[in-house]
Structures are given as structure tokens and as C-alpha cells.
Design goal:
By secondary structure, this protein is of the alpha+beta class. It is built from 20 helices and eight strands. The strands form two sheets. It has a five-stranded antiparallel beta sheet with strand order 1-6-3-8-2. A three-stranded antiparallel beta sheet has the order 5-4-7, with no helix packed on it.
Length: about 450
Amino acid sequence: MPAPILLTDAQVQAYLTNGYITVQAAHPPAVHQNIHRQIETLFATEGNPGNDILPKVPDLYQILRDPAVDGALQSLLGPSYLIHPHRHCHHNPSGSKGQGMHQDSYENDQNVRHHRTRWTMAFYYPQDVSLDMGPTAILPATQYYNSSKQAYEREEQPLCGRAGTVTIVHYDLWHRAMPNASDRDRFMVKFLFTRMGEPQIPSWDYRDGTWQAEGTDPPADLCRRAWDWMRGTDGTAAPTAVSLDETSTSSDFGELSRVVESLRQALDAEAERLRTVYALAARGEEAMPVLLNALRGEAKARLEANLANEHTNPSQLDAVFALSAVGRPAVPHMVELLGENDWWLRAAAADVLGDLGTTASDAVPHLTHALDDEAEWVRRNAVEALGNIGPDAAEAVPALTRRLQDSESWIRHNAALSLAKIGPSAAEAVPDLRKNIDDEDRYARANAAVALERIGT
């Protein structure tokens, strides 16, 4: 099997800035023509197969195993990445009006949109796609924005290309299907991928740690921090951090009460808010009083709106991004928050510890206790956090195993995924994972199978 073609430093930095990278599968046209013909026949005889597109058209495995595709995915997600059980063939028929711009939801989950690359999607064209055929379009550099107003400031970019074009995007990038004005149907096969281990060293063709990408939108400090994390640093005193006076925010650290107030409101200037919180995070421990105050205010102020917004975790907060960027100094503060009376603060603390991943390994006993929290949001975020910590969270396996029987399906399937990330050290969960092969939820079933494979049974 040919060696994977890894991305370069420049390509990874372009991905972190723009939210996507396009590669070309190195297969002759006949391979894509055959896949296209199989998909057309499948849709004509059985309809859209949904998640079954891969077993129904097994030649798609050739695309997933392509050296350029696999190499790009290894570069962004590490060599142990998982092909997620959700996949879908998007059929854009002739004469369609297209879609509105959107961010995908996390399949049957209530995930927080994070800035660190743990999830990606790939869009594969089995046929040549021109502008009139209604290609997928993206809003470049919008993967860090949850506000449609902020995202819509970017110019739409159609992803046209010849058969074999594969565009890998940050999971949260804004995108849509464009109107199809041609007389041909357009097919695109979408795959999801997730990171199964935290970065310890760069997983691409790494040559130079210097951040060289230019631009201020998205905020440069955000992108540089994501770069540092992918290089394996823990975010503490990151060498690429900038100071407050490099942003439009006041550099007087004693006059930041307005920052706290701005984080309590769902303001339209999302890019400015992100510049502010990352500049604060660059202060490390010094910024913790301000950030903790901001978290308390923002978590309460946004709670009702976040709960009302479909597929939105109540921990979707600007202060959470900042606390994650602080790194190791934030860990003891988040452990303390896990004991708060307000469940939304406990949930936010668990989410921050999850985004810190292995940096938060000292918090494993506290996260394990949180798995039995009365609030489902706390349980869900604690489950994910322990999975991100990985093998160092082995002591949590019995408690994670209990969550395989949680009343919420999205907690059950996250528990199985976290056990898969812990790997062979989770062997005692095998009997319960086997029971979940028959779970009523498709992703709980699928992730149980993944866990059994990763544990080694």
C-alpha cells in the first residue's frame, strides 16, 4: 500500500486559517466513473442509502485509502483517526434551488463547537462538477464563528472540481449546496472523521514551528494557538501568544470590566470577542479571575438561548474558548468549578477539561465523579473529557461503563467512543459494550463496535 502523502507546514497553516484543504485522489477516471455509476443505480433502485452508502458502494474505500486523502487526514487528526459511522451521499438534482448556508450538527449529539481540530468532514465528487451543477460552496475562514452574521461577511466559494476531488473541511465550517441549473444530477459523498488520540508531536511533514500564515480574520492568535496545540504543546505560555495591546482591546489589564460585560451578551461582533478572549488567555494565570467572572456571567446569560437552540450544548461559550487556551493553569480552577451548585457551571468546567485533553489528566478522579451527576449535560461533557484524556483515564473505565446504560442515547454513544479512545486499558468494559451492539440508537451501536475493535477483542 502506498505511503500516505502528508501535508506540509504551509498546508496545515492554510487549513487552520481557511478551514479547508483540497486534494485529488490518485485514481484513473474509470474508478470514479464506476463509483458514480453505482451511486446513480443505487439511487434509482433503492433511494438514498444514508449511512449504508459505504457498504452499498464498497469501491468508496479506495477513495478513503488514497494516499493523498489518508495523508491529509493523518496530518490533521493523527494516524489513529476514526472514520465515523455517519456518512451520507448528497444528491443535488437538476433544477434544485440549493440550500442555505449552515453548520452541520453533530450526529445525534449535543457537542460544543471547539477550535481545536478533533473533527473533520470530507466531500468527495465521483464526477466532474462545474458551477452550473450546484457544487458544494463554503464560506472560507468561518469555522470558528457560530454567528451567521459574522460568517456571512465572507464571500462564498464554490468547490468545483473534476472527478476525484476531495475537500477536507473543519467540521464547523459554514457550507451549503448551491442551486443546480444544469440538466445533470450532482452527487457528493460526505464522510466524517474524528481524532482518537491527542497530539503529542506533529503528525504532518513538519519542518518549522514558526507561524507564517498572514491575516487577522479569523483572529491570528486563535489560529496560532490551534497550531501550537497540533504541534503537541499544552497551551501553557504558548510561544506564539500575543499581548492585549496587539488587539483593539485596551492593554490596561485593570480596566477589563467591559470585557466581562461583553461576554455576558450575545453580541454581533463575534470576531472581536474572540480576539479579546484569546488575548486574555495569553496572560495565563493572571487572567483567571477575569475569565472565571466572565464564565459565570456568560454561562447564566446564554443558558436559555443555548438550551432553546437545537443541537447546542449550554457550554457553547466564549469564555470556554479562553479557558481552554490558558492551558494547564486553568485545570485546578475547573476542578473547583466541578463542585459548583449550578449545573451549567459544572458542565462548562467539564467541557474545558475535555478541550484541554491530556493536559487535564490530573482531573480524572473529579471527572469520574461527574459521570454520576444528576445533570445530563455534566455527564455528557465529563464522558467526552475522559475520552480526550485517553489511556490516562483508565481508572474511569468502570464509571464510563455505567454510562453505556445512560437514559440519554447521546451519552451512551459518547461513552462508547471514550472507551474506544482509552483502548486496551478499557478491557473490563467489553461485556457491556457487547450488550450495546443491540442498542436502539444507531451511533451507540456503531461506537460500541468501534470500542470493541480498538480495545482489541
